[in-house]
Amino acid sequence: MLFRQLYDRESWTYSYLIADPDTKEAALVDSVLEQVERDVQLLRELGLTLRYAIETHVHADHITGAGKLREITGCQTVVPVGSKAECADRFIADGEVLQVGKVTIQAIATLGHTDSHMAYLVNGTHLLTGDSLLIRGCGRTDFQSGNPGLLYDAITERLFTLPEETLVYPGHDYRGHTVSTIGEEKRWNSRLAGKSRDEFIALMNSLNLPDPKKIAEAVPANERCGLVSV
Fold it and tell me: Which of 8, 62, 126, 173 is catalytic?
């Protein structure tokens, strides 16, 4: 499997390029509009054909590059079922599997950060967690119908039941981390390790964070697959 972690410095967003090196089919998860040119150049250099531009959720902190990637490459845009993104070619449900050559991408519903959010388990070893489980943290739950109880359930009952050696690749990191494991996060994630469901809900409800800078433009733009002027 070809697996690349790509970064957008302005929004602290990770995008992930996944491909089968034999068939040259590829998928890109959580693309960023301002990085489409970089991503298309990388696809070209590696000789890859983009089949899917996949979202973990409707982002509030950056605009997706999925619509632009579809225009350039002819790929399908894929969003979690329940997302208010009628522009998408395909809505993916819990347990559904996308095939990229011989590489499998399995959707795992992880509601709570928003009311329609998926993590993606790639080939059973690489877990793309979007904004649900972050490295030593988790996504906020105070907008877009977020729900801290549902997020606690999704992480502890679904993600934390995966093998401890499963690699964790988040949608963002603000401290320079690039990868973790399920075992590490079960032991060292300060928002979850040793916390009861009620303690987690109280913690999340007390964060009092400012809104993301781009929330007013990003959410409506992403409901149109990011097809707006930069």
Answer: 62
User: Would you give the end-to-end CA distance of the chain in angstroms?
Assistant: 33
Instruction: Name the nearest CA neighbour of 30 among 3, 48, 52.
Output: 52
Asked about 126 being catalytic, the answer comes back as no
Catalytic residue among 57, 117, 126, 173: 57
Catalytic residue among 39, 117, 126, 172: 172
Q: Are 133 and 170 in contact (CB under 8 A)?
A: yes
Pairing of strands 180-181, 167-170: antiparallel
Helix (H, G, I), strand (E, B) or coil at 166: coil
Of 56, 28, 67, which Cα lies nearest the Cα of 144?
56
Element (H, E) at 216: helix 215-222
Nearest CA to 113 among 152, 80, 149, 140? 140
Which tens digits make up the pLDDT trace of 168-213? 999 999 999 999 999 999 999 999 999 999 999 999 999 988 887 7
Query: How do residues 99-137 score in pLDDT, each as one tens digit?
Result: 999 999 999 999 999 999 999 999 999 999 999 999 999
Residue 7 backbone class (left: φ over 0; alpha: ψ -120 to 50; beta: rest): beta
CB atoms within 10 A of CB 223: 17
Query: Catalytic site residue 131?
Result: yes
pTM above 0.90, yes or no: yes
Please indicate whether residue 177 is annotated as part of the active site.
no
